[in-house]
Amino acid sequence: MEITSLHEELADSVRAFVRKEINPYVEKWEADQIFPAHDLFKKMGDADLLGIKYDEQYGGLGLDLTYAVVATEAMGESRCGGVPLAVGVQTDMCTPALANFGSAELKEQFLKPAIAGESVGCIGVSEPGAGSDVASLRTTAVRDGDDYVINGTKMWITNGMQADWCCLLANTSDGPVHKNKSLIVVPMDTPGIERTKIAKMGMHSSDTAQLFFDDVRVPGRNLIGEEGMGFIYQMKQFQEERLWGAAWNLGTTDRLVTETITYLRDRKAFGQSLLDNQVIHYRLAELRTEIEALRALTYRAAADYVSGEDATRLASMAKLKSGRLMREVTDACVQFWGGMGFANESQVSQFYRDGRLSSIGGGADEVMLSIIAKLEGTLPTRTR
Ligand SMILES: Cc1cc2nc3c(=O)[nH]c(=O)nc-3n(C[C@H](O)[C@H](O)[C@H](O)COP(=O)(O)OP(=O)(O)OC[C@H]3O[C@@H](n4cnc5c(N)ncnc54)[C@H](O)[C@@H]3O)c2cc1C
């Protein structure tokens, strides 16, 4: 993937936006355990940052996914993980299937306002009894005349408390589990929906909700693409989600290593900078090498995706590697910052908490390993 001056300009404008519109408010939003998604998304929409890879017809910039990846990496400038996560849900998790497979009418109604920052979206896949095993989800959407009637519960839904609409994965028939699902856009003000907030160890500024659907009636035209294709569409949508995760981890870990170097250069112990200890600068050099390797992998996966090749293997590897590297970098940095690393206010402890999600959300490390193993042909036959 070639980085052009346009990629660099875009990354600069994302970083400038984050410094002006996000970072000054992080402390308050973390304490409030929510941020004003509608206000911030409107500002991002006005700055053309929510539809980088989407069609100009719906207000996007019409650029390819490599630009979105570089912009997400630049979101690593954010001094918390919660806000970038919420933005990532809007740009790379609840909208790709709508953009790729939705009808023109549905895109006009839901994608266009999402790109403009006039609505907040969420993605409803996980349930209390089904996370890693997506195929086993229980929520149903049953045809009744021209409508679907939805019943079930969704769990861990980012933006769930504030969302105007949900891209929901539900069973629309009793058939085989990979062929009985559909993605449906559900307006969140429809009668029968209840939301409760979930408290978490990190990502505090991002609101996470449990959503309850009790005889929720939505028009049949809110179906994305074809009925029964939802599992396939969601697996494709996960590729963009996983590339988002790799890119955000990349930008964040890179910044944390840079800030750690600055801190350790200033911090003195035993008559010298902490950075002058070989055990420390060697470890940081090693981590930076790992970050560069992740950058190469993520960019290669993005380039494959853009060229129309199946990027599942490389995107899964990038997601896996990025979650593990986030844990390694934050653990090492907390150690090197000493007591300051343990203080809530420090950036390294912030991402020690926030970054832990990277190995769980959007497919846990073990799910990535099983996808990679399957594509390598090394899974035992009975589980293939
Ligand atoms: C803060 C947060 C935000 C989230 N946002 C969203 C969202 O917006 N929308 C959404 O739909 N979901 C969301 N999720 C859900 C997330 O995608 C799931 O938590 C994740 O997929 C794991 O599912 P689970 O929690 O049910 O864990 P489980 O499926 O119960 O798995 C638990 C653990 O078991 C291990 N495991 C799983 N499968 C295997 C295997 N085959 N072999 C070996 N070990 C295995 C893994 O270590 C895994 O972490 C969010 C989660 C969190 C915590």
From TrEMBL:
- Native organism: Gordonia rhizosphera NBRC 16068
InterPro entries from the xrefs?
Answer: Acyl-CoA_dehydrogenase (IPR050741), Acyl-CoA_DH_CS (IPR006089), Acyl-CoA_Oxase/DH_mid-dom (IPR006091), Acyl-CoA_Oxase/DH_mid-dom_sf (IPR046373), AcylCo_DH-like_C (IPR036250), AcylCo_DH/oxidase_C (IPR009075), AcylCoA_DH/ox_N (IPR013786), AcylCoA_DH/ox_N_sf (IPR037069)
Per UniProt, what is the name of the gene that codes for the protein in this document?
Answer: fadE
- Please list the GO biological process terms of this entry: fatty acid beta-oxidation using acyl-CoA dehydrogenase
* Superkingdom assignment: Bacteria
Q: Which Gene3D superfamilies match?
A: Acyl-CoA dehydrogenase/oxidase, N-terminal domain, Butyryl-CoA Dehydrogenase, subunit A, domain 2, Butyryl-CoA Dehydrogenase, subunit A, domain 3
The Acyl-CoA dehydrogenase/oxidase N-terminal domain sits at 7-118
Query: Which keywords annotate this record?
Result: FAD, Flavoprotein, Oxidoreductase
Q: What is this protein called?
A: Acyl-CoA dehydrogenase
According to its UniProt record, which cofactors does this protein need?
A: FAD
Q: Which residues form the Acyl-CoA oxidase/dehydrogenase middle domain?
A: 122-216
- Which family is it part of? Belongs to the acyl-CoA dehydrogenase family.
- Residues in domain Acyl-CoA dehydrogenase/oxidase C-terminal? 228-374
Q: Which GO terms describe its molecular function?
A: acyl-CoA dehydrogenase activity; flavin adenine dinucleotide binding
Please give the catalytic activity noted in the UniProt record: a 2,3-saturated acyl-CoA + A = a 2,3-dehydroacyl-CoA + AH2
One GO cellular component term of this record is: cytoplasm
